[in-house]
Amino acid sequence: MHLAQLNVAHLIAPIDAPELADFVAALEPIYAVSDSAPGFVWRMMESDDPTEVITHQYGDDLLVNVSVWESREALWNFVYRSAHLEILRRRREWFVRTAVPYTLMWWVPEGHTPTLGEAMERLALIRAQGPGPEAFTFKEFYEPGASAASPPIAGVPH
Amino acid sequence: MLADPVRRELYRFVAAQGRDVGRNEAAEAIGVQRTLAAFHLDKLVEAGLLEADFRRLNDRTGPGSGRPAKVYRRGGPERMVSLPPRDYRTLALVLAEVVDQLDGDEQAEKAARRTGERLAAASHETGLTDVLVERGYEPYEEEGRIRLRNCPFHVLAETHPVLVCSMNLAMCEGMLRGLGEDRIAAALDPRPGECCVAFIAKDVSE
Q: Which domain of life does the UniProt lineage start with (chain A) (predicted)?
């Protein structure tokens, strides 16, 4: 099984606004990191131009990323142990703060390419019911086929 | 366990290499006999402070290449000793949770920057790497930057990576300020298995 991932972010201004210039400038180098990262399988693209964000029916201010990875570790190392971490650190300069989940994962058969509709259904699910086997997070992670979340790392409660 | 000076030196040496170390290399580095080094290294493995493995230390393979050598590296789990028992880790986890809920990253980073500044100013050490050693970061040089082999906040960095790494960067920036070091900048440069911060000499033309 492969690990599919969706994250969404509400932009504080239109994507071509000056407030987002640093963010847009970071897109190409960050995608270069993800696409060559160990364990990277696939990501949804609007076109070959990395600064062209995915267009969809869920609102113009909503930025979406969908990708597929070989394992939890591969995705973790890209999200938190690469140049991508700097984007997360500066997220409040570019994205509206949200109290609801904005990122989630789920398992897909190898070779399956998730659609945005499928990913957004999982987002609705985690927002309605919290993490479960069909839509989960790093903090409450479900191995393939597991009905309960993985035990937390030593001594660390969820 | 680490009361014996030879054993302590061996542990320090292996941990500082950040890779597998053979018995000969460790013995030579500490200046003791190979058999004595082997004895202490195996004691450290028994105690879980080091991990052992078998590996060929040369490139030869197949018949005649010799049997694999025993190699050592630092063990994964962390040890904390506190007498009487204290549990700052659980408290730190609770506080990290609170910072997230209050959306208090910015305040947390400011507090971390102030703390770093105070720590560096209060230290007897005056050089950046010496202060980093003192704080447990295990600095080493690579391609003109100072990188950090150990994350002193590892468990929290696993549960709250963005908050903890941002605070750590701020603390490192504070340390630079506390030392009056304005020729070096701290930046996030994470990689698997290491601390997220690196130090880079500032471009003097700026």
A: Bacteria
